Give the backbone structure.
Amino acid sequence: MSSLQSWAALAVLVPLAAALLCVVLPPLRRAGKPAAALCILASLVATAASIYLLTQHEAGAVTRTEVPWIVLGGKALASIGVNVDGVSVVMLLVVCVVALCVQVFSLAYMHDETPSSYGRYFTLHALFLFSMNTLVVAPNLLQLFAGWELVGLTSYLLIGFWFHKPSAARASVKAFWMTKLADMGFVFALLALFVATRGFDWNARLSTETATLVTALLFLAVVGKSAQFPLHVWLPDAMEGPTPVSALLHAATMVAAGVFLIVRADPLFAQAPATCEVMLWVGSITALFAACLALVQSDIKKVLAYSTCSQLGYMVAALGAGSAFAGFFHLGTHAFFKALLFLGAGSVIHAVHSNELADMGGLRRKMPVTTLTFGIGALSLAGVPGLAGFFSKDFVLAQLEGKAGWIPWTMLMATSFLTAFYMGRVLIKAFGGAESAKAHHAHESGGAMLLPLVVLAVPALAAGFLGGVLAEWSGAEYHVHLGLTPVVASCLAIAGLLGAVMVFGRGRAAPFAGVLESLDRASAVDRTWSGLYRHVLLGVSAVAGFVDRYFVDGLINAVGYTTIESGARVRRLQTGRIHDYAMAVVVGALLIALWGVLR
Amino acid sequence: MSHLLAWIVAAPAIAAAVLLVLPASARLPIRVVSLIGAVVACAGSVLVALTYDRVAGGMQMPDDWALVPSLGIHLKLAVDGWGVALLLLTGVIIVTGVLASWGVEKRGKEFFLLLLVLVSGVFGVFVSQDLFVFFLFYEIAVLPMYLLIGIWGASHDVPKRGPFGFAWKRFAVGGKEYAAMKLTLMLLVGSAAILVAMFLLWKEAGGTSFDLAHLEQTKFSLATQNWAFPLLWLGFGTLAGVFPFHTWSPDGHASAPTAVSMLHAGVLMKLGAFGVMRVGMVLCPDAAANWAWLVGGVAVINVLYGALCAASQTDLKYIIAYSSVSHMGIVMLGAATLTTTGWNGAVYQMFAHGIMTGLFFALVGLVYERAHTRAIAKMGGFGHVMPAVACFFTLACLSSLGLPGTAGFVAEFLVFLGAAEGAHSWWAVPAVIGAVVTAVYVLRACKTIFWGPPPTGEFAHLTDARSTEWAAPIVLGAALILFGFWPRFLLDFIDVASHTFLARIAPFS
């Protein structure tokens, strides 16, 4: 194992060690603060390791170390290890930095918790970092799958962190089920890949049919994990978790794992144009659909949740257009500015004790730092020229030029406008206008919460300029060019923001708000899923349960009953009276004699 | 150490004999002696694992005493890779089972005595290399269950419904005596089938020896095999919960006291699957290949149907019991693939499911003892008052649904792989769907019982695990994670045996 791989392994194993310590030493966990310190220390080590990796990494180099994990007949069927290349190094850094920021933010945000649940919170965070890093450095799809499922687990446990709330319990189980349903695709993809190649490597050469099958199945898992239409319904509900959790898992990193998987398995996807076609459409539809719903949410976190769906749609569409790098670039910038937005929202929620936009308003004077940093995040997301979000989104859109008759390009351009429009709405409703009653008592958050905001604001501002470097590391092409796409995108972004000022600045509702709200409330997609669960799955299972109890087991009871009954009938023959038996002997003898005579 | 295997088998029996002479009033000595018997057997099993030569493989640590020389019956013991894994499983389950039943007050002496006799039989089955003795131990393991459930069990009502409702006239369906009787009778019918097949094979092999090695060397005619294998499959399969002969399992496990459920679902059901593979498939390789479509097809029904049935249950113990039916289907599916991957998965699943279901039943017993109800609808928010139980229950759920990092994942994934690369790839599809249905019912149970607002009223003062109750959750929980993170601890043993046995079948499949 070279020193580079040891550093990568360190970034995986140190958080695991911290989580394990907190698990096996209940006093440590219940003490709260020490557990938090330990977990943050672990994240610091992991972040340092990932920074060191980045500085040492040579562009284009790929190195990996694998240990046989399952050995059958002397041959390794599966192995685990670390894979260090441009993609994993960058992703590792993004994950570690965002995780560290979120954990530091949580120190203050969660301070009202009891010590034992404070400790539990940070233990789960350490477990998450381990799982996510396992996924990121995976040298094969099997380990990636293991990390994939483990981040799903931590997501489930963190959404349900406040498990006394029935809504949180429901949301966490729903998130697990929806993603587990989609993960069937991942399992089948692994099985198909194994049957075809006897391995789980993403560099495998496959026939077109097999490649299409494997990638389509993988994409199914992505639709679940990255909350793409029609499996996106779990993500808005997942906002039941603490806000820093939403920032880390349900915006910046975990939900982006789906996009990461496609970037990782790009050699497979490149062999399957049919799957890419589907991805292009699913991504575009999700982006537009989720942006529409984001427009009418009254809960600040739900706006951001739908916005996450929408932005993930951009990435998926870029991947569908065949540019893994565009998707990956947008993943990276999105991780920073969306984490910033969620933490900013957390800071606001912490101050006004409400998620509702209606309870906010006029916070710009009370919370200047939060306003400034949130504003940077919002403008970056809106795609204002010069900020990080502009560059990556522009690059995504440039990849879509001319694809599928310009329709996806047009849809995503429209989404750009909507994005600027709904972020403008949030800015105006939360920070602009007159002070609401709740905002009156609000005050700026403490240093532990502001520091991560400021730290994240830097990449949200400037990460866009790293596109060239990033491309060089990943071995991709990246050019900024002044053409149709950037001009249109910039105009739409500014038009969206201006539109928001015109509409919401005057206290009006969004156009078509009524239609969109009813669409959101009725949410046909959500109802379809719950109907499928309640009526189809539970219905079938009720039938199975009844059949088992009253038919399968009933038949066995019937056999028992028949045996007892026939025994009871036959018993009557044994009367115990001598003359009955003598009679039987005589009749029997006569019958035998008769038989002898007749023969 | 000489005669190590014999000591493992004998230790619980000797402890049981000591219990006989102890007065029933000696509460603590009875428990300590039982624990010593269990710990010695468990330590012996660990020692076997440590000394077994994985590179050489094959049968090791042989012992041989002639019992009935004229019929060729020997007490012949030896252990192979599968045996190592299953000895470990049995050892861990019996130790934690004894500790989990520390609080049994009703006829404590008899309870522990029967438990120990039973487990002696289980150990015996896993190391017997003589078919007759194998069968003898098998019966020793199965029969004490009748008393254990009939005396120490719990009853509940099953409403009279359906076209076979007339049976309710003769027996109280759902009663503990009913459950004990049904379980015993169904397993005895299975035993009768095994007995017939056993003599069929013995006779064709010359009628001189029940030695498994001797029987393995005999090339049985296809006709004999085609009769013997289905008999062995259904005979042993009844104990493995093979559809439609699984219905003893939900009632039996729901009625049985904690440790008995742990042992029965955790270890005894594995005897059935072990019997199908070790005796049925290895001795009748041609027939195993011939009937694989049926064995696998039924196993698929087990997986999916068991999971669906579990999803419809409202009684916690029934949920876990039906999940056993579903998970034993995975074992049988792995066996039916007739691939090394599938076979390794099957044996690994025996181990993983044994540990997981042992943990489940230990926790369910713990909850039941405190809440005095098993209806999940009545529970809620228990996570606030018993956080550790909630954590371990969640862990068991995760292994049950095959989450990577738990032993359940390794086992299920190997079986899925085996199915996919085998002759009937489609088996993998319903099996994977079954795993998703598992996620539905285990997590729903978990949510209903442990999550939600803090309990009020009678449940407000429930307590977390105490003293000896910690043993089962900690040991079994740690095992789930350990063998999930590093499967080679066990898989290296299992694999060496799977290859040897499968080499007999491979040419035919």
User: Anything to note?
Assistant: Chain B has a mean pLDDT of 92. The first helix of chain B runs from residue 4 to 21. Residues 4-508 of chain B form one domain.
